[in-house]
Amino acid sequence: MIDLTSLTLSGARGLLDRREISSVELTQAHLDRIDRLEPQLNAYIRVTGDIALAQAVRADEAMRRGEAGELAGIPMALKDILSTVGVPTTCGSRILENYVPQYNATVVDRLAASGAVVLGKTNMDEFAMGSSNENSAFGPVHNPWCLERVPGGSSGGSATAVASSEAVYALGTDTGGSIRQPAALTGTVGLKPTYGRVSRYGLVAFASSLDQIGPITRTVADAAAVLGVIAGPDPRDSTALNAPVPDYSAALTGDIRGLRVGIPREYFGDGLDSEVRVVVERAIEVLQSLGARAVPISLPSSEHALSTYYVISPAEAMANLARYDGVRYGLSLPGDDIWSMYALTREAGFGAEVKRRIILGTYVLSAGYYDAYYRKAQQVRTLVRRDFDAAFGEVDVIVGPTTPTPAFPIGAKVDDPLQMYLNDVYTVPINMAGITAVSVPAGLASGLPVGVQIIGRALDEETILRVGDAFERETGHNLLRPPMTAEVSA
Amino acid sequence: MPISRHELEHLCRLAHIALDESEMVDMLGQISTVVDHVSRLQSVDTEGIEPTAYAVPIDSVVRDDDTELSWPTEAVLTNAPRRYGDFFEVQSIFE
Questions:
Q1: What are the helix (H) ranges across A78-219?
Q2: What is the distance between the alpha carbons of residues A217 and A94, in angstroms, rounded to a whole number?
Q3: Which residue in A406, A407, A400, A408 sits closest to A426, CA to CA?
Q4: CB pairs under 8 A between A and B
Q5: Contact residues for A389 (Cβ-Cβ < 8 A; gap 6+)
Q6: Which of A172, A425, A448, B26 is the most exposed place for a label (fewest CB within 10 A)?
């Protein structure tokens, strides 16, 4: 008897299409697994079992009629920052604990049109601010590879659900690494598409010039399939690029001969864990053995990208989060007048990290500091972009580590924001430049997953997915499963 | 550059965030550390460099000037913490 929760998206697609299994069976198997594992993992904020089973029944009917979409009948999970009609969307925050959207995010509509089955909403750092999933108002998520360690963040619930087979795939969001970093730390594939490739309509805003939605999966081929469904222009998001959506799956030829792979010197500096370095260097050797050519390059402004990020993203966040005022939706605590209502509501509703970033954003935008911090950061952002433009004149993709270290213990960095922020040092530059990158499992370091990051030109998801897929076929690192989840299946 | 307590209190007022005493103490140290780190940007030569607000070209998006239905009032008010008829109710703004 096949373990239905071990299936990838493409594996499940085949069995469903041949009627060897039903979506109801597949969905129920995942709901049972969620029941067994959630007490230890806390990957979900809300499981929507009844809705999932109803969607599965409809998907089975559609498949019988031969009208099923590419994702029909396959159970997945949504980060709880993506708006869902009738299902609370909390953003991991007390301030939105009881907020029920009246509209769907565009990606949710596109998944529904393809017949997707939504198992629930996944845990996350509050308003996507964090790299460890410890900033959730609904408790931390535990890494399935080692329950005492963080799964990364902010899409830590989505990554954990996929890594532990509590979902076949999931959607996350990535503002400075929030898809790729948890994917690396949980041994999953995490794709941050080009800024504008996927509509942000219905994604609760954190930093509007950086936020992007993308898939977390167990294979690169699955990420390609999901991206093909969710990508494309949207009249409801003026920043969604008006570019045609290619057939990403067709790009996965396995052939990377002659490809020029840039190795950025700055990504292999002092902050990189020695075991992670060994794993990533071995990954580069694998790409060379497949016929790619490694080219040393330099991205000199990288060292300033993190500082730039921690000016620009708090500035955008403080403006976006001004809307949580206790008037139209969300938590509301009465005060003596409207001013005290604002302050009391936001005091009780926001966690410490969100307050830190709002205050930081207020500081860098305030009179006397605007030019020194905010404008300066936007100028350095231009330099970061130019680095990538120059590099992509010489190479086709850029490869390096996704994170400086493997998963760290829960609580280890919670009182030191700056140390926490350094987790994003290799992922942030990609968001600053608006380009695309995917993190692919590259093996283990002391029993913990390590991700290799493949960075591509704007709108060239096809090439990075082709490289990731070729690497995966050669190494099979993506097939490694967390030991605790294997015990549950047995 | 450390942030003074006076400055932090001013920022909290601007951001409409109240902090209790222990949060205030933690925040002073943490914000100062982060500001100190990002101050390294001052050393970068950006003479003549245009700022980037969006990394991709953002064009104005217009649609035909046709009348469309907006949300029904009840949907808009579904999540209202307090309502008065078809309005959001708030506490007094003026004395």
A1: 106-113, 156-163, 180-186
A2: 29
A3: A400
A4: 169
A5: none
A6: B26
Which amino acid is present at A90?
T
ipTM, 2 dp: 0.95
Inter-residue contact A28 to A35 (CB < 8 Å): no
Cβ-defined contact of B91 to A347 (cutoff 8 Å):
no
Please, are residues A353 and A125 in contact by the beta-carbon 8 Å criterion? yes
Select from A102, A418, A433 the Cβ nearest to the Cβ of B75.
Answer: A102
Q: Buried b vs exposed e over B73-82: b needs ≥16 C-beta within 10 Å? A: eeeebeebbe
Which is it for strands A117-122 and A293-297: parallel, antiparallel or unpaired?
unpaired
Cβ-proximal residues to B59 (8 Å cutoff; 6+ apart), any chain: A238
* pTM, full prediction: 0.97
Within 8 A by CB and 6+ apart from A37, the residues are A43, A144, A164, A166, A485, A488
* Domains of chain A (ranges, CATH numbers): 4-266+277-298+389-489 (3.90.1300.10)
Q: How far apart are CA B7 and CA A490, in angstroms?
A: 59
Tell me whether residues A195 and B46 touch, CB distance under 8 A: no
Residue reference for tokens 């695309």? A436
Q: Which residues in chain A are contacts of B76 at CB distance < 8 A?
A: 102
Q: Looking at CA atoms only, how far is residue A327 from chain B in angstroms?
A: 7
Q: Show the tokens assigned to A273.
A: 């864990």
The length of chain B is 95
Identify the CA nearest to A308 among candidates A363, A257, A382, A366.
A382
CB contact under 8 A, B63 and A99: no
Active site residues of A: 79, 154, 178
CB contact under 8 A, B35 and A339: no
Report yes or no: A159 and A188 within 8 Å, Cβ to Cβ.
Answer: yes
In tens digits, chain A (490 residues) has pLDDT values of 689 999 999 999 999 999 999 999 999 999 999 999 999 999 999 999 999 999 999 999 999 999 989 999 999 999 999 999 999 999 999 999 999 999 999 999 999 999 999 999 999 999 999 999 999 999 999 999 999 999 999 999 999 999 999 999 999 999 999 999 999 999 999 999 999 999 999 999 999 999 999 999 999 999 999 999 999 999 999 999 999 999 999 999 999 999 999 999 999 998 999 999 999 999 999 999 999 999 999 999 999 999 999 999 999 999 999 999 999 999 999 989 999 999 999 999 999 999 999 999 999 999 889 999 999 999 999 999 999 999 999 999 999 999 999 999 999 998 888 889 999 999 999 999 999 999 999 999 999 999 999 999 999 999 999 999 999 999 999 999 998 876 665 4
Peptide bond into A154 cis (omega under 30): yes
Residue of B nearest to A307 (CA): B38
Minimal-distance CA residue of chain A relative to B58: A239
Query: Which of helix, strand or coil describes residue A110?
Result: helix
User: What distance in Å separates residue B84's CA from the closest CA in chain A?
Assistant: 12
Task: Check CB contact under 8 Å for A239 and B56.
Answer: yes
